[in-house]
Amino acid sequence: MSLNRMLASLRPAIWLATLSLLSGCAPMMTGTMAEGGLNAAKSAFGALSPTAAGTDERQKRIQAALNEVNVGGEIQPVLDKIAEPPREKSGNAQGYTCYEFPSVYSATAAAVLVALDGKIVFYGNSRCADEMNKINVKGGATNPKPGEISGK
């Protein structure tokens, strides 16, 4: 009978030890599973492609040119440094010209330069259709005038 009493008194202690052990391991197991899921998602969505991984020379060249862009600066030297024609070049009646270079920031994200009178008024990750639509709908630039800093 004393053996039963001793086992009964040890049961809560064993239960408490097991509970603390499991709760202590849960974050480690969860982190490992989350990391595994992240790695699977990266490979499934093309993060291993040269453009997305940042190993594509074309992508590096265009990004380097865009890193030196200043709002209000001349557009032509930037286009010369990029050294390839844009996939899309569009303009509107207000005098804005948009240049779009595909697959610069990732396999699907394009780089855009918008100019007015030869001066850069916007650059970044966008699409010419989106930027020109913003300008046309509002009847003027939604982007800053040359020399102003964009709010984006």
CATH class of the largest domain: Alpha Beta
Radius of gyration: 28 Å
Largest sheet: 4 strands, antiparallel
Q: What's the number of domains? A: 2
What number is the mean pLDDT? 75
* Beta-strand residue fraction: 15-25%
CATH architecture of the largest domain: 2-Layer Sandwich
Can you tell me the residue ranges where pLDDT is under 50 for at least 5 consecutive residues? 46-53, 144-152
Rough shape?
Answer: rod-shaped
Kindly report the CATH topology of the largest domain: Beta-lactamase Inhibitory Protein, Chain:B, domain 1
Q: What level of helicity do the residues show? A: 40-55%
Strand runs, count: 4
Strand arrangement, major sheet: 1-2-3-4
* Distance, first to last CA: 77 Å
Q: What string gives the helices and strands in order?
A: HHHHEEEEH
Protein name: Lipoprotein
Organism: Eoetvoesiella caeni
Signal peptide: 1-34
Keywords: Signal
Can you give a write-up of this model?
It comes from Eoetvoesiella caeni. Keywords: Signal. Residues 1-34 form the signal peptide. By secondary structure, this protein is α+β, with helices and mostly antiparallel strands. It folds into two domains: 1-44; 52-137, Beta-lactamase Inhibitory Protein, Chain:B, domain 1 (2-Layer Sandwich). The chain is 49% helix and 15% strand. A four-stranded antiparallel beta sheet has the order 1-2-3-4, covered by helices on one side. The longest helix is centred in the N-terminal third of the chain and has 43 residues, at 2-44. The chain starts with a helix and ends in a 15-residue tail after the last helix.
